[in-house]
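During the practical work, I worked with a single protein chain and the tokens that describe its fold, as given directly below.
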Amino acid sequence: MQSSVAAGAMVLTLACVPPVAKAVEYYPWCFRGITGVKTICYFESWAQCVATRGGSEGFCFENPAPRPRVPSAEALEAPQPPAPVVPPQGQPAPRRDPASR
């Protein structure tokens, strides 16, 4: 019983923590061999894709995945809400000073 309560508290805590913005790498060009088994999308330009494939039979094409949205600088600098305080099991919740709001 105690472990399920602790696990529930941990899940609740992790669900309330805001995600950290990460830079997402996006490559606009892909290469697919003639077998169609493997697609590689790690190219910055069409010329780079063609040069890298060398003598391999296949073709370069634009990455069909949508380009990820980049958050604005204002959104990254916006203050985040404080993480909830989860008291240890058997401990009372800490009191907050009403004057500090």
